[in-house]
Amino acid sequence: MTIDMSQFYEVFFDEAEELLAEAERLLLGIDLEDPDNEELNAIFRAAHSIKGGAATFGFMDMTEITHVLENLLDKIRKHEMALTAEHVDAFLAAKDVLKMELDGHRLATEVDQEQVSDVKMVLKSLSEAQGAPVAAAAVPEAKPVHEPVPTSAPVALSTTAEVAQHEVPEGTSCFNIVLPEVTEKDIENLQEELGLLGIVAVSKQADGRSVFTLTTDSSQSDIVSICSFIVDPDDLIISLALAATPKEPVAEKVAATAPTTTSSSNTSKSETEKIVQEEVGYGLFEEEGKEKVEEGYGFFAPFKPHPDALKAELIGDDTVLTEANSGASSAASATVQAAAEVVSAAAAGAPGGVERRSPGRRESDKAAASAETSSIRVGVEKVDQMINLVGELVITQAMIEQRISMLDPVHNEALINSVTQLTRNTRDLQEAVMSIRMMPMDFVFSRFPRMVRDLAGKLGKKVEFVTVGAATELDKGLIERIVDPLTHLVRNSVDHGIEMPENRKRAGKGETGTLTLSAAHKGGSIVIEVTDDGAGLNRDKILAKAHSNGLAVSESMSDSEVFNLIFAPGFSTAEVVTDVSGRGVGMDVVKRNISAMGGVVEIRSALGFGTTISIALPLTLAILDGMSVSLGESIYVIPLNLIVETLQPREEDIKTVTGEGRMVHVRGEYLPIIALHALFNHATDITDPTQGVLVLLEADGKKSALFVDRLVGQQQVVIKSLETNFKKIPGVSGATIMGDGSVALILDVTALIQMGQSANYLTGAPVFSNQHHPQLQNQSNA
Amino acid sequence: MSTETAATTGLKTKSVEGEYLTFVLGAEEYGIEILKVQEIRGYDAVTQIANTPAFIKGVVNLRGKIVPIVDLRIKFNLGKVEYNEFTVVIILNLHGRVVGIVVDGVSDVIALKDEQIRDVPSLVTSIDTKYIVGLATVVERMLILVDIEQLMSSQEMALVDAVAA
User: Fold this and answer.
1) Tens digits of per-residue pLDDT, A766-775?
2) Tell me, which fold does domain B2-157 have in CATH?
């Protein structure tokens, strides 16, 4: 009997994803100086669990990566090796690769094999690097990173005979493998295959043959068997170049013309040392040194074709890399400097200058994380079904309550008491059930430290990232949808808000900017704020830009009105507001997304002191704060966040254009009146706006006055889809069930405003139905 | 579904025998496949929907689901359209979509054999004969067997979005 494993895939994917996120969170929070054993163990366990799962399901690519990752982690957690910034970077890179592979299995997205092997290589070289005792300084540890790592790109294939240097770790040997003449493609393949055994470097002899230099703990026969996939083993010349000498870096040289294999093993000790010196960058031999340094830093080269990966993984080293490269190509002296910088940057343990967070910062979050361990995994649809049923229960309970209230309280005291009890229990139940869908904001926040760190590193800024209220809970649906807008805002803040360290110094602020992401409950909504202590928004520049964009602006506008201009579509662009803030890039999209969730965005800013962007969201997507209005016999619900105000117009405020299009004059503005009864062909006695109520609506920057009969009340309603069993109705976004069990339609304000503007419904030509309606005639004559 | 094929071709090429729920519209008696019926309930107040044909009465709350209600009497121009305590709504479940139809009354559940079912002659009616599976005779009464699924998802019923139809 076979078991269908695929049914367990989802569970593994979910779990692996969580473990990866957890590992990343721990990695970012880790203290390099004094890593917490518990944290190291947790990271190790995560890698181990993923490895186990991946092996079970036969995802060998993930197993391979996690295996090397695990080896390295194991050494570190046993204190055989000190944790360095390189390790953290490599782990993060490995995490990204694992995520990529995971997505590859799950969503059939593309997996960049080159990146995979790069990361594997880095991890391997780190783990094989002679574990400097924990007490040792960071400088020697930084070295292994600069070992040549195979590059599949032609970058590393220098035309002259080249020397590859290695530190040969204990227990491994260094082989020279001279290939017959083969295509570049084969060389790449071979290199990849050999890369699985150990550290491999390619060079080329003058006669066009390629030479691999492989440092591995595998035997020669292993190498032969691997190579035989691609080339005829008889054509291979494999020689043991050098066995490892403990604790001493060894390099070997392949002479330009000599039959390489023998000469290299004859290489004298003094020559070896010379070359080693070169590598370190003493610039003794200008001509060779230059090539060598390039080779030496080849570590970075494989990343080059993947700017994205580079951005994510090695931002810290990015600037150093460029310097190193340019230095190498210009003069040896520059190289020395570059090399020195690499070392010092590594020693500082903080590439990119991102302040690592102090371990105490997330104390409380940590406690929350450990509390999560006892949980069960349930499908969302089951939870939704439960929420629906409880919603029903609440309505039924309300109906019973209504009936009970009509009974004589004296005769039915016991019954009334019981129902009161029922009411209370139902409320509690509803609250408890709703909380199932709630997830802590940490779910969103946790992805930002990494982003901020990388971004700051890339921009050369110093940013301290602080989160407040990560335990605040929000509906799962909202959580998923808030990620994109929030990412945009955080990116903006780092990019445009926080100034470069020197500018900050000049402005009398600390070099390190602070970016705070906070979440808190306020009333019935959750407020998420992105705060930076950067340059702030420049009112004058925004006004000037708005003016040149042809927006209606005036000097008398309030600050918040001015700041809101950056949400105007097309107000993007850094080119005008540049030095102050290029905010506005895609800000209209941010605002639109948030409005779609029923939220409101607000900006507070002080020039020179920083900016706060505040997002207020409803607690769940399923519940809407609505104003119910009546029209004839029916009740409609209008989303409260789109209502500007309501008013009962006076006769003289109602104006017409060509006797038809009616408008209302409100505080200097003429707003079109949309008569809901005319738009919906709805029978009502009230056709004169002065007898009814005008609800001023604003959506997408357009205002209109909706004419209804009466305001009924303000309440929270549960949104139900009309489309499940019916179809989309123009002007209606959904339906809800009122306390008495009847159905009320929720108005789609954006659509209504459009309908009101595009249609000449008032003139008697119905918009959506071909039926003639006498009501409309009355309207146009009114 | 065997009935679907039969209905679309207009020919009784396949077996349509089975159990049918019969209901009355004016003076006529109709039958629909019993398996499409979810439940039968009385007529409750509906919430009108703007700019929809008159035969779509609106939507009701059916235990938390928003369900559209169609009055077949209006659609087929049959009988007096009045709503009283005898007015019945048949709730249909058509591939997961729940729809209610208003009829004058529900009479019976009958098992029909193929030999009891006759083809429909071409006629001019208010519904396309392609939605009529066949005619059955049961004790002097004529039953009009309707492929309710096809009918309800047709364009003319305007119950589904054009793309979905």
Assistant:
1) 334 333 343 3
2) OB fold (Dihydrolipoamide Acetyltransferase, E2P) (2.40.50)
